[in-house]
């Protein structure tokens, strides 16, 4: 299992460190880009883990914003890369052992090359810095995937895309595909300022009259839910990718008149739902950690050991899976957890204590 190193919790997609209050209260568990659900049903899909490992050569490196670099990747032998659909991401294996997920943001389905974009988070877990500082043209990058938990439903008639910051990466190819399919779409793209809104030119280039730009520094405030959803009628499907506060704002507002699905993807852990406190015993160190109702076991483990392995923080990549030696697990993962396994980023305990092989 790869090891990841982080010293603090991740910033949001705008690069702000301060947590949204709602999510601070509920913080605990950890899909970019992560998962999708219906506003009325809030179902979650199970995602098969992708174990296929590929390598690609970096053919281009470009600065999309002061803190965002884009890498273009190609098959080292000049062949085609694995097929993908808009909303898909790849799991990058960094030289340090960290694993990080990045959405494919090139033209929909393109296989001659991929493009990913990475926002540098100075005080994050180190993955984005490693991506920025390690990879240049001609370097080889190892990845798994692509896989997709954030599909565009192409028989949708009306679609609103709500974008926050680097959340543009899965949405851009979705917009391009929606346009190709003749879907009646609109988009609102919000960010702290235009220069920090990567790929803004490419989003507006698809159809300028369909895109609303909300730059906080021009409007003097964050976008209210009513503005984010101004173009969403009762039958409009909404796709949103952005920071937790934006997701929650849209989800809450959309719940009030949900006749059409809300699809979303996260770059950060989802809140714990119906959490009950439990004890987590780490067999190797014989430490017992108290996991409160509103935090994940992974979150608590990271306080204890910042090198604890994780990637998606949302229960589908399998990176955080640990062997269970005793206790009963409340399995909440979207990928398979065996009878003696636990995805510590999302799963919890049914018994008072769970002993894990860590
Ligand atoms: S970190 Fe991906 S399943 Fe836990």
From TrEMBL:
SUPFAM superfamilies: 2Fe-2S ferredoxin-like, Ferredoxin reductase-like, C-terminal NADP-linked domain, Riboflavin synthase domain-like
UniProt entry tagged with the keyword Membrane: yes
Keyword Metal-binding: yes
Transmembrane segments: 21-42
Domain FAD-binding FR-type: 51-153
Cofactor: FAD
Keywords assigned by UniProt, alphabetized: 2Fe-2S, Dioxygenase, Flavoprotein, Iron, Iron-sulfur, Membrane, Metal-binding, Oxidoreductase, Transmembrane, Transmembrane helix
Stretches assigned to the 2Fe-2S ferredoxin-type domain: 278-358
Domain of life: Bacteria
Gene Ontology MF terms in the entry: 2 iron, 2 sulfur cluster binding; dioxygenase activity; metal ion binding
Matches recorded under InterPro entries: 2Fe-2S_ferredoxin-like_sf, 2Fe-2S_ferredoxin-type, 2Fe2S_fd_BS, Beta-grasp_dom_sf, FAD-bd_FR_type, FNR_nucleotide-bd, MRET, OxRdtase_FAD/NAD-bd
EC assignment: 1.-.-.-
Top-level EC class: oxidoreductase
PANTHER family (UniProt xref): CARNITINE MONOOXYGENASE REDUCTASE SUBUNIT, NADH OXIDOREDUCTASE HCR
Name recorded for this polypeptide: Phthalate dioxygenase reductase
Source lineage: Bacteria, Bacillati, Actinomycetota, Actinomycetes, Mycobacteriales
């Amino acid at each position: 299992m790869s090891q990841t190193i982080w010293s603090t919790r991740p910033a949001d997609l705008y690069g702000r460190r301060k947590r949204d209050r709602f999510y601070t209260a509920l913080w605990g568990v950890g899909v970019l880009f992560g998962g999708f659900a219906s506003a009325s049903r809030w179902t979650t899909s199970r995602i098969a883990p992708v174990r296929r490992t590929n390598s690609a050569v970096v053919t281009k490196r470009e600065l999309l914003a002061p803190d965002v670099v884009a890498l273009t990747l190609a098959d080292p032998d000049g062949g085609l890369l694995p097929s993908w659909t808009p909303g898909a991401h790849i799991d990058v294996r960094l030289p340090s052992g960290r694993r990080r997920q990045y959405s494919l943001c090139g033209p929909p389905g393109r296989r001659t090359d991929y493009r990913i974009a990475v926002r540098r988070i100075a005080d994050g877990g180190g993955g984005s810095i490693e991506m920025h500082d390690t990879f240049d043209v001609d370097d080889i990058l190892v990845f798994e995937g692509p896989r997709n938990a954030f599909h565009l439903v192409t028989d949708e008639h009306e679609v609103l895309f709500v974008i926050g910051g680097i959340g543009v990466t899965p949405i851009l190819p979705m917009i391009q595909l929606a346009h190709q399919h003749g879907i009646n779409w609109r988009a609102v793209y919000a960010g702290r300022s235009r220069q920090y809104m990567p790929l803004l030119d490419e989003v507006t280039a698809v159809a300028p009259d369909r895109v609303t730009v909300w730059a906080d520094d021009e409007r003097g405030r964050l976008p209210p839910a009513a503005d984010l959803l101004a173009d969403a009628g009762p039958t409009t499907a909404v796709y949103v990718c952005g920071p937790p506060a934006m997701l929650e704002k849209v989800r809450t507002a959309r719940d009030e008149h949900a006749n059409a699905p809300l699809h979303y993807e996260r770059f950060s852990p989802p809140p714990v739902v119906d959490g009950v406190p439990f004890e987590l015993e780490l067999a190797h160190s014989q430490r017992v950690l108290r996991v409160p109702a509103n935090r994940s076991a992974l979150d608590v483990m990271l306080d204890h050991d910042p090198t604890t392995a994780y990637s998606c923080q949302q229960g589908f990549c399998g990176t955080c899976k640990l062997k269970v030696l005793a206790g009963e697990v409340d399995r909440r993962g979207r990928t398979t957890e065996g009878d003696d396994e636990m995805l510590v980023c999302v799963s919890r305990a049914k018994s008072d204590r769970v002993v894990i092989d860590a």
